[in-house]
Design goal:
It is built from five helices and 23 strands. With about 400 residues, the protein is α+β, with helices and mostly antiparallel strands. The protein folds into two domains: about 120 residues, Four Helix Bundle (Hemerythrin (Met), subunit A) (Up-down Bundle), CATH 1.20.120; about 250 residues, Neuraminidase (6 Propeller).
Length: about 400
């Protein structure tokens, strides 16, 4: 019952964020063209603000809480309604600017509320003291990608799995209608992601062109599959330097079930950086390899019994490989796990819903313990629950950045 309440709360928080962003757009229009506003438009805007106020009350009831965050949000919306009352009478541009500033402040309150929610949802972020995944939430859909088209089916999105200082809230996105990796965009926070306002748009030069969708961002570095020669590539945005590696044993024959060209699949978890691939020698069975982030070389690798063309994607959590396959037109299943510490593998069954039919990228992020999926052009993510009641596994060899305010060890 408590888990159900948290899922319901996450859904309501998403609704709230969308409403705040929509209202922010309308306030920006008023700011730019104050003379174009009329009584009807201002009245409609006031109604929407009151709807947000009602949603805040609903959130309070859903959590049976009267926390300072919710009380503050309620006060801010009350002030905004009063400001709009004056705006209706005067059409004063200064009041419009004041209202916009109040929206920015309430957005900051929203981010604080999300941080508090994250601590409630996953109080052990950064820790591997659990016995694996036991549940996946319903899909949380942000919106269509920044290109506003469903034809961009190849791609990925998410957050840096090991964010540098002051980039903890940053999101990234890259996609194309073909299977090539041509560029990547970065957004300071969730709001700017949804508003399609990148602070950095990096174009990959032709000599370093990538292919496939199984790329990630870690420690301000993009890791992806190089087009020619086929191999591993990384680009560090701090040093502005490219670097590549070739793995001769990796086969170009075996890809995932629903998308071609997915030869190498990068992943990150609490223990570091990984890459998976299949080999001709093993007739398409999956190999898990640990990457040294400094040298960009392979430290160790493990052979599994998992046949790569039979699955849709894999991801890593605390040194454990999880494989996903399609069950029916609506559901996916995490059906296989391989523990690199014990070299043991087993069949499991954890079902979760897709939003659309196909997805080209599915990755776990240890910084917030979420799965990020790029699903037929849409940004989708999932919360995970872990088995903390069973015998715990060992702690990861290093902890996440302790200076990050939203991480709790």
């Amino acid at each position: 019952m408590e888990l159900g309440k948290l899922e319901d709360y996450e859904s309501k928080m998403t609704q709230y964020a969308e409403k705040i962003i929509e209202l922010t757009r309308e306030i920006e229009i008023l700011e730019k063209k104050p003379d174009a506003s009329n009584d009807a438009a201002l009245e409609a805007l006031e109604v929407k603000i009151k709807q947000v106020e009602a949603l805040i009350k609903e959130l309070q009831l859903s959590l049976k809480s009267s926390t300072a965050v919710f009380e503050s949000l309620h006060r801010e919306v009350t002030v905004m309604i009063g400001t709009l009352d004056q705006l209706e009478k005067t059409h004063d541009k200064n009041l419009v600017l004041l209202t916009r500033r109040e929206y920015i402040r309430i957005q900051m309150e929203l981010e604080e509320c999300e941080r508090r929610h994250q601590e409630l949802f996953n109080p052990n972020i950064g820790s591997c003291v659990h016995a694996g995944i036991i549940k996946v939430s319903k899909p949380i859909v942000s919106q269509l990608n920044a290109h506003l088209t469903t034809s961009y089916i190849y791609g990925g999105w998410g957050k840096d799995s090991k964010p540098i200082r002051d980039r903890e809230s940053m999101y990234w996105f890259s996609a194309d209608s073909g299977s090539y990796i041509n560029d990547i965009r970065f957004y300071t926070n969730y709001k700017n992601l949804v508003l399609r306002r990148p602070f950095l748009h990096h174009t990959i030069p032709n000599d370093w062109r990538g292919i496939g969708s199984n790329y990630i961002v870690r420690d301000n570095t993009l890791y992806y599959q190089n087009y020619s020669p086929l191999g591993l590539t990384k680009y560090n945005f701090t040093s502005a330097r490219y670097e590549s590696r070739v793995i001769p044993a990796a086969s170009q024959t075996f890809s995932y079930a629903k998308f071609s060209h997915q030869i190498f699949d990068f992943a990150a978890d609490e223990t570091g950086l990984w890459v998976t691939f299949a080999t001709d020698e093993s007739n398409g069975k999956m190999v898990v390899a640990k990457i040294n982030e400094e040298s960009f070389g392979i430290e160790e690798q493990w052979q599994t019994s998992l046949y790569k063309p039979s699955i849709n994607n894999v991801f890593m959590v605390c040194g454990v490989l999880y494989a996903v396959r399609t069950v029916d037109i609506q559901n996916e299943e995490i059906f296989f796990m391989f523990d690199t510490k014990t070299k043991q593998e087993k069949q499991i069954s954890i079902l979760f819903e897709r939003f659309q039919d196909k997805y080209s990228n599915l990755d776990y992020n240890p910084a917030d313990q979420k799965l990020y999926m790029y699903n037929d052009g849409y940004y989708v993510n999932y919360h995970l629950w872990f088995n903390h009641t069973a015998e715990a596994t060992a702690e990861p060899p290093f902890a996440l950045n302790k200076t990050e305010p939203n991480l709790k060890m």
